[in-house]
């Protein structure tokens, strides 16, 4: 009796057996002399080698057979660029081949490919190629990588490939005859010639248009399509073949510069063609921001990490901004934008197809469409953008014709108005001429009268001149008398002040303010010349305060009241002068109460200040006996 455990064991063995059969690699049976076959999906098995150290003998030995995984995408990818990847395909030949065959890899950006090719005796020969080697080392002068298949007989053959690349690549393996390869290559290069020839023709044509129209949009368009051509040449491998065949390191990132220029000149062309600055101010600012950010990202990739150039998806941002700008301006009624929107629609479709293929979602897209979609869309875009430029020129021509018709009508109207004005002016001129003749006669009569009056005025002027000279002579005499009188008055006033007791109002006429007092004080203090109290220097310049002096050597600043009886005094300087004068003229007999009544200063302040003055007066009695009327001023200096 079969137990439950036995049934489970049998079921597990059954599932393992059929699971192993289901997971076994599919052998591709090629018809005799089949011209071409492309390996897809489970026909290619993949083994990831993170260390990159596995050898062919180890991979072939059988211990890694279970680690080979059948491809679930249309074409395999190296999802981790740091790893090496091993691929193998099994091919069954029904009989001996009558033609030469080769294996070709479509993606020309693969850095390093090593192919192990079996012969009839199951011996393998290794052949190496890749984008990191000079172009002239390839088997054929072709942008793709080819490996000649050794002569085969009937049987199953397993081909091994080791791929290492710094960027994500599509591993598209094609088995084709040499005859098919030659025909395909000639057709492909003929198509490339047509494509790049169209770019040259479009560039030359738009340069001619620029030489005639002098509009920057043509220059931006030429630079844009040249950038498209350089990018396509870099992406197709044509540039590596013909431009920098001995610079594989440069070829790895050569596409980044034309791709950056492509986005930049596309946005500049959009600004110029659609007049975005006038028609959509916010979008104009947005495009400038996108240009700046794209330039910053380019510099960051170039200076920091070249691997960031592989993020080509960022071009979706300027493409979307340009597309939306064209649609927005077209919706506002600008007709040339319709071709612009249609052109970017094609480019947008090509970009989306390319992204779907890169992300692995393009399994249902035919291979030739997926590979050449961007080229076809670029051609359609160039044609439609040329229509947009032509439409803009047509509109400009139409506006110019309308403007010319309007100018002609305006010129005719101006001529009619001119004739009307000329007739009116002729009538006015005749009337004015008659008036001028009549007024001329009147003017002649008045001229005679004026001439007679001039003679009379001349006589009167002579008389006035004589009188003016006499008045001037009298004024000179009066001025001399006034000066003598003023001098006598000042002298008498000064003598009176110096000899008698006068009130403060009369004293203030001689020393009215602080400047007058400081001027006298400066003359008294430095009448013998300035000598610095610090260093003895005799040269000085003006100080911070009025009438102060600063030493030019030690920068000592000496105030005019320093070292005088006025130093540290809060009494107004003219009143302090008056108090010194009163004490000197009364020989110190005037009381502090009297000084307070005269000057209006508190008695205690007057007492303190008069005591200081009287002390100096007593100390200098002998010196002041012969001082005369200016003796009071000598009390000022300490």
Structural notes for this entry:
The structure is a single chain. This protein has helices spanning 4-23, 56-60, 178-213, 216-236, 238-242, 248-253, 256-274, 276-279, 281-303, 316-331, 337-358, 367-499, 504-510, 514-525, 573-585, 592-599, 603-619, 621-624, 631-634; strands at 27-29, 36-38, 45-49, 69-70, 84-93, 101-105, 112-118, 124-129, 145-148, 155-164, 173-177, 540-542, 549-551, 557-558. The protein contains 19 helices and 14 strands. Mean pLDDT is 78; it is low at 1-23 and 494-501. The strands form 3 sheets. Strands 1, 3, 4, 5, 7, 8 and 10 form a 7-stranded mixed beta sheet that branches. A hairpin with a 5-residue loop joins strand 7 and strand 8 (124-129). It is α+β, with helices and mostly antiparallel strands and 638 residues long. The chain folds into 3 domains: 24-177, Immunoglobulin-like, CATH 2.60.40.2380; 186-392, Rhopdopsin 7-helix transmembrane proteins (Up-down Bundle); 504-634, no CATH class. The longest helix is centred in the C-terminal third of the chain and has 133 residues, at 367-499.
């Amino acid at each position: 009796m079969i137990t439950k455990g036995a049934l489970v064991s049998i079921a597990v063995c059954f599932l393992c057996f059929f699971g192993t059969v289901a997971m076994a690699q599919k052998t591709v049976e090629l018809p005799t002399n089949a011209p071409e076959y492309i390996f897809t999906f489970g026909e290619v098995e993949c083994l990831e080698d993170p260390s990159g150290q596995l050898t062919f003998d180890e991979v072939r030995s059988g211990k890694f057979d279970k680690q080979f995984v059948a491809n679930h995408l249309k074409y395999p990818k190296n999802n981790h660029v740091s790893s090496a990847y091993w691929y193998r395909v099994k091919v069954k030949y029904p009989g001996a081949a009558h033609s030469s065959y080769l294996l070709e890899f479509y993606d020309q950006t693969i850095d390093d490919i090593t192919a192990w090719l079996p012969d009839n005796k199951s011996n393998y020969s290794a052949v190496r190629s890749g984008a990191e080697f000079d172009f002239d080392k390839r088997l054929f002068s072709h942008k793709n990588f080819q490996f000649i298949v050794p002569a085969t007989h009937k049987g199953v053959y397993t081909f091994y490939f080791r791929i290492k690349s710094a960027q994500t690549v599509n591993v598209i393996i094609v088995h084709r005859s040499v005859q098919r390869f030659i025909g395909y290559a000639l057709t492909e290069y003929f198509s490339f010639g047509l494509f790049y020839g169209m770019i040259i023709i479009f560039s030359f044509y738009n340069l001619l248009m620029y030489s005639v129209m002098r509009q920057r949009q043509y220059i931006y368009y030429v630079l844009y399509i040249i950038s498209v051509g350089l990018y396509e040449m870099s992406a197709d491998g044509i540039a590596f073949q013909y431009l920098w065949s001995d610079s594989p390191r440069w070829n790895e990132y050569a596409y980044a510069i034309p791709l950056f220029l492509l986005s930049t000149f596309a946005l500049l062309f959009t600004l110029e063609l659609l007049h975005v600055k006038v028609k959509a101010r916010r979008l104009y600012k947005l495009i400038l921001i996108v240009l700046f950010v794209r330039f910053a990202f380019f510099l960051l990739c170039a200076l920091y990490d070249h691997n960031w150039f592989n993020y080509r998806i960022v071009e979706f941002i300027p493409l979307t901004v340009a597309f939306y700008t064209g649609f927005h301006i077209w919706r506002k009624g600008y007709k040339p934008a319709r071709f612009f929107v249609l052109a970017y629609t094609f480019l947008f479709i090509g970009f989306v197809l390319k992204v779907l293929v890169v992300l692995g979602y393009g399994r249902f897209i035919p291979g030739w469409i997926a590979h050449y979609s961007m080229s076809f869309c670029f051609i359609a875009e160039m044609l439609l953008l040329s229509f947009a430029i032509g439409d803009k020129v047509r509109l400009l021509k139409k506006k110019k014709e309308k403007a010319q018709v309007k100018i002609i009508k305006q010129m005719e109207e101006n001529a009619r108005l001119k004739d009307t004005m000329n007739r009116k002016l002729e009538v006015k001129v005749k009337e004015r001429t008659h008036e001028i003749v009549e007024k001329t006669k009147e003017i002649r009569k008045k001229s005679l009268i004026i001439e007679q009056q001039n003679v009379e005025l001349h006589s009167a002027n002579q008389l006035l001149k004589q009188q003016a000279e006499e008045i001037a002579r009298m004024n000179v005499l009066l001025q001399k008398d006034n000066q003598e009188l003023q001098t006598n008055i000042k002298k008498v006033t000064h003598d009176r002040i110096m000899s008698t007791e006068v009130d403060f109002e009369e004293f203030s006429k001689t020393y009215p303010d602080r400047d007058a007092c400081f001027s006298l004080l400066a003359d008294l203090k430095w009448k013998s010349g300035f000598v610095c109290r610090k260093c003895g220097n005799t040269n000085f310049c003006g100080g911070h305060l009025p009438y102060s002096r600063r030493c030019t050597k030690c920068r000592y600043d000496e105030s005019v009241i320093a070292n005088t009886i006025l130093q540290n005094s809060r009494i107004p300087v003219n009143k302090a002068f008056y108090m010194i004068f009163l004490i000197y003229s009364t020989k110190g007999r005037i009381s502090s109460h009297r000084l307070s009544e005269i000057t209006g200063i508190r008695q205690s302040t007057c007492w303190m200040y008069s005591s200081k003055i009287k002390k100096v007066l007593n100390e200098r009695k002998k010196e002041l006996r012969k001082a005369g009327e200016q003796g009071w001023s000598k009390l000022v200096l300490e």
